[in-house]
Amino acid sequence: MRRRRPLKLLVLSLLFLAGSVYLIFNYPPDMQFSIYNLQFTILPFALGFSFLFLFTSFSFIFGNKRRGFLVACFALGYAILKLINLAYPFFIILLFVLLSVIELMFVKRK
Fold it and tell me: Chunked in runs of 10, what are the mean pLDDT values of the chain (110 residues)?
């Protein structure tokens, strides 16, 4: 019997997409805001919303939360490498190999 995909992941995905698009288009990446005399930038929140969007959407597509998490980690890792100007092909291949080994470790365990 086929398992149905949970629609709550799709709804959450659309909400996180709307949140990340709102943050990306309305605020510059170097915007500072303060909460109780602590300075924060908007960038970690935008990356977090993007990660959650990718996680929920790929979990819905694959029907597996672990694979959705690994794809989202790859995309976030690439974004962080790009942000610190280290998006060389070697580092991207290393990131892909690392996440592939983690996936194989979980597949072999079962």
Answer: 76 94 88 86 90 94 91 95 92 94 85
- In this structure, what token pair is assigned to residue 7? 């629609």
Phi, psi (5° rounding) for residue 17? -65, -45
Q: Is residue 44 part of a domain?
A: yes
Residue 1 lies in a domain: no
Global pTM value: 0.86
Instruction: Write phi, then psi, for 33 (nearest 5 degrees).
Output: -135, 155
In 3D, which of 43, 42, 47, 52 has the Cα closest to residue 16? 52
Domain that holds residue 57: 7-109
